[in-house]
Amino acid sequence: MGILEKIEQIKLELSRTQKNKATEYHIGLLKGKLARYRRQLLEPAAGSGGSTGQGFEVQKSGDARVVLIGFPSVGKSSFLSKITKTKSEVANYAFTTLTSVPGVLEYHGAEIQVVDLPGIIRGASQGKGRGRQVVATAKTAELILMVLDATKSNDQREILEAELESVGIRLNCSKPNIHFRVKKTGGIKFNSTSPPTYLSEKICYAILKDYKIHNADILVRDPECTVDDFIDIINEDHITYVKCLYVYNKVDAVSLEETDRLAREPQTCVMSCELDLGITDLVEAIWKNLNLTRLYTKRRGILPKLDDPMVVRHDSSIEKVCDSIHKDFKNGFKYALVWGSSAKHSPQKCGLSHIVHDEDVVQLVIK
Ligand SMILES: Nc1nc2c(ncn2[C@@H]2O[C@H](COP(=O)(O)OP(=O)(O)OP(=O)(O)O)[C@@H](O)[C@H]2O)c(=O)[nH]1
């Protein structure tokens, strides 16, 4: 039996099994197996080089990457052509976007790469080479924009969420608070800081046995952790936690009440590409969600260039700043002078571990 059939069989069994206390052990085991097969499906077959020739690859560039995911004809190309310099083909028939069209959004001095992913993740959960690369691209994004059609039912969102979930992409959540370490000897040790509500030692042992892991330390630090969380932790290398903004387009075609209702949902923006509504608010929401830090670098005795910031990730240290200038830069580093909200006094003399804030001014002093 191929992996795809095995996956289908487990999904069928899961849908047929009633959820209750008596079946939770069985369900947990099935979920563990499902995650294992899905992982295998996404791993490139040995010798294939991970590609089928009709590859999909977009070089990462700029300060951050945003990917657009959505069903055909929801308006992804229209949106992309509004916010970026790249012109992409717009047509009123499905599947215009056959290959990816990367564009660059310039905002607050940052260059944000926006990639329109071809189709949805469909192919990937079927183990197709191209779909696999689409998933890999989505996993390198700092933000996913799920573009939805406000005139259609919410099924579109549920289908996309399930697709992303099945390829190991977790939206708007953080890694479960479980410490897990595989060891060479010593058997399996299960501990928790307070009694877990949903996880049991028995189910963790059974799942690990199925994964052929016989020696490991488990420490559950959050009592609300579930079996799904535990499975994510043992498959950690294949799971990516990404922020997602839900974007409802075509609100010109729905009532004001409906637009208002959608706009009030968490992590949601509404827009109409046709009427040019909500686009600037969405761009601002993208910026806020990316949480980038702008730094103005200066030389001694010269005012900083306020129109040309250097952009680094949130919570970056001076070391990261040096690395983004040049990989050897920190070898010659002596100290940094920092002005702005991260400095206790202006300027503060800082070392490599100092964490910078948005709009700080930094002067790097080298030996
Ligand atoms: N009413 C309305 N129609 C829109 C809006 N934005 C886009 N459309 C229409 O929707 C159709 C699809 O737009 P595209 O931008 O090509 O959609 P897409 O998601 O890129 O589609 P694919 O390339 O097939 O994936 C076009 O006919 C657009 O004119 C909008 O805000 N309101």
Automatic annotation (TrEMBL):
<feature type="domain" description="TGS">
    <location>
        <begin position="291"/>
        <end position="366"/>
    </location>
</feature>
<dbReference type="GO" id="GO:1903833">
    <property type="term" value="P:positive regulation of cellular response to amino acid starvation"/>
</dbReference>
<dbReference type="Pfam" id="PF16897">
    <property type="entry name" value="MMR_HSR1_Xtn"/>
</dbReference>
<keyword id="KW-0342">GTP-binding</keyword>
<dbReference type="Pfam" id="PF02824">
    <property type="entry name" value="TGS"/>
</dbReference>
<dbReference type="InterPro" id="IPR012675">
    <property type="entry name" value="Beta-grasp_dom_sf"/>
</dbReference>
<dbReference type="GO" id="GO:0003924">
    <property type="term" value="F:GTPase activity"/>
</dbReference>
<dbReference type="InterPro" id="IPR012676">
    <property type="entry name" value="TGS-like"/>
</dbReference>
<dbReference type="InterPro" id="IPR005225">
    <property type="entry name" value="Small_GTP-bd"/>
</dbReference>
<dbReference type="GO" id="GO:0002181">
    <property type="term" value="P:cytoplasmic translation"/>
</dbReference>
<dbReference type="InterPro" id="IPR006073">
    <property type="entry name" value="GTP-bd"/>
</dbReference>
<keyword id="KW-0547">Nucleotide-binding</keyword>
<dbReference type="InterPro" id="IPR031662">
    <property type="entry name" value="GTP-binding_2"/>
</dbReference>
<dbReference type="InterPro" id="IPR027417">
    <property type="entry name" value="P-loop_NTPase"/>
</dbReference>
<dbReference type="Pfam" id="PF01926">
    <property type="entry name" value="MMR_HSR1"/>
</dbReference>
<protein>
    <recommendedName>
        <fullName>OBG-type G domain-containing protein</fullName>
    </recommendedName>
</protein>
<dbReference type="InterPro" id="IPR031167">
    <property type="entry name" value="G_OBG"/>
</dbReference>
<dbReference type="InterPro" id="IPR004095">
    <property type="entry name" value="TGS"/>
</dbReference>
<feature type="domain" description="OBG-type G">
    <location>
        <begin position="64"/>
        <end position="291"/>
    </location>
</feature>
<dbReference type="GO" id="GO:0005525">
    <property type="term" value="F:GTP binding"/>
</dbReference>
<comment type="function">
    <text>Involved in ribosomal function.</text>
</comment>
<dbReference type="InterPro" id="IPR045001">
    <property type="entry name" value="DRG"/>
</dbReference>
